[in-house]
């Protein structure tokens, strides 16, 4: 079951492997690098989840404000504010989830490419490579030695 993961899609997109083979390859890559905690950590993805929830809450709040300013959107005047909030919350949540999934996919791709060949990254983009290594050293101090 560990081969069925969202990281495998990156390998499918980058190298064209079949999905199962890509899942095996990416898990082996993370094991070789000692990055298995990265799969479990999911720090960036939690931040994106909270962004989605915040956008949904903002949309719901704006719907309540519009419901008060314009008048009830739904026939039941007592529940109109709650219904307006929920409808706008889920619409905002859906749209932000679709939009921020692109960011999540880009983060996954950068992490896999950085794990796959940090030397190439260092050769072509030395300043960005040093920034990535410094970030990794701060977040995962035991992993930094594997990056060279």
Characterise this structure.
This protein is mostly helical. It has 2 domains: 1-41, no CATH class; 42-107, no CATH class. It contains 7 helices and no strands. The radius of gyration is 21 Å and the shape is elongated. The model has no long low-confidence stretch (mean pLDDT 85).
SSE layout and pairing:
Elements: H1 8-15, H2 19-33, H3 36-41, H4 43-70, H5 80-116, H6 118-124, H7 126-139
Helix pairs in contact: 1-2, 4-5, 6-7
Report the principal-axis shape: elongated
Distance, first to last CA: 30 Å
Unreliable segments (pLDDT under 50, ≥5 consecutive)? none
Main beta sheet: none
Number of helices: 7
Helical/strand content category: mainly alpha
Domains (count): 2
Q: Beta fraction of the residues?
A: under 5%
Order of helices and strands: HHHHHHH
Helix content: over 70%
Radius of gyration computed on alpha carbons: 21 Å
Mean pLDDT: 85
Summarize the structure.
The protein has seven helices and no strands. By secondary structure, it is mainly α.
What labels describe this entry?
148 residues; mainly alpha
């Amino acid at each position: 079951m560990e081969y069925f993961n969202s990281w495998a899609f990156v390998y499918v997109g980058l190298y064209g492997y079949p999905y199962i083979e890509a899942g095996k390859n990416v898990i082996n890559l993370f094991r070789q690098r000692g990055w298995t905690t990265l799969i479990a950590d999911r720090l960036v993805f939690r931040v994106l989840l909270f962004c989605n929830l915040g956008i949904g809450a903002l949309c719901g709040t704006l719907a309540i404000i519009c419901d008060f300013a314009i008048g009830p959107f739904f026939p039941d005047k007592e529940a109109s504010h709650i219904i307006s909030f929920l409808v706008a919350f889920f619409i905002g949540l859906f749209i932000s989830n679709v939009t921020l999934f692109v960011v999540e996919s880009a983060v996954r791709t950068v992490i896999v490419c950085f794990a796959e060949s940090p030397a190439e990254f260092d050769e072509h983009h030395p300043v960005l490579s040093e920034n990535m290594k410094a970030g990794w050293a701060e977040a995962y101090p035991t992993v930094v030695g594997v990056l060279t």
